[in-house]
Amino acid sequence: MNKLRTSIRNTELNWIANTIVRAYNTNEKLQQDAFLSFLMKEIESVCNNLTTAIMQEKKLSMLAELDIKRNESLKVLGKLLEGYSVFPIKEKQEAAIPLKAIYTRYSKAKITKESYMRKSSLIESLLEDYSEPNTANLCAQLEGINIQLDKVREAQDSFIKSQDASADSKGTAATVYKKELLSLINTKMVPYLTAMLVAQPELFDEFSKVTETEINKINDTLTRRLKKLPQEEEPNDSSVDSNKTEEPAMQASPADPE
């Protein structure tokens, strides 16, 4: 029986492990085997942990997307103020110049390139500056500025809400559970099933065939995927050989509205 290739993706491993567990749970006679019973409980437990970790990483990916939206809302605000600062109507231009100066101050502070936490703080400060009575009066004179400030607020609030949810559920990285699950399947389950097919074929044949079929299918998929990649891009599954996580970078934003 072949082992799983280590280049398997987290979601693919999660799927095949669940498939194997379901196949095992439908075989009542096989559940009488003490070693396999204990091993399958381990696999199921780690698989559940992997599911949770994958969902957490999806939340982190969503957080990065929400941060991009914050950047975009700031970019639009800057463009509006830039346009008003050269507007042909004197009153509009005079109202825009001090508002643009506020934006420029935060732009020079590289607000869009700061860490998530630092950026959140700067955005709150920027919104507070624009809410000062005199400044708010100037904003009211320029159509669209208050609407865009509301969009900055909405983007900020959405990001903070998602960040709080991610922080509450943050745990071990999916790659850690991937390494553990691959070890259980490749170094324990596959060798055991191979041996027991010789010792007790009548008991292990059905489950082993299901397991072997699923492993071969996913390995074939990985082989086809690898053939489509340039040689230098061949995945070496560094996630299995190290504790490197797959979380998005938290220090810099992917988009720069400046």
In terms of DSSP E residues, the strand content is under 5%
What is Rg?
A: 27 Å
The N- and C-terminal alpha carbons lie at a distance of: 57 Å
Q: Identify low-pLDDT runs.
A: 231-258
How are helices and strands ordered from N to C?
A: HHHHHHHHH
* Overall body shape: rod-shaped
How large is the count of helical segments? Answer: 9
Major sheet attributes: none
Count the beta strands: 0
Average pLDDT, rounded to a whole number, is 86
Counting helices, strands and paired strands, the structural category is: mainly alpha
Helix share bin: over 70%
What does this structure look like?
By secondary structure, this protein is mainly alpha-helical. Helix content is 75%, strand content 0%. The protein has 9 helices and no strands. Helix 1 packs antiparallel against helix 8 (201-227) and helix 2 (34-85) runs antiparallel to helix 7. The longest helix is centred in the first third of the chain and has 52 residues, at 34-85. The model is unreliable at 231-258 (pLDDT under 50).
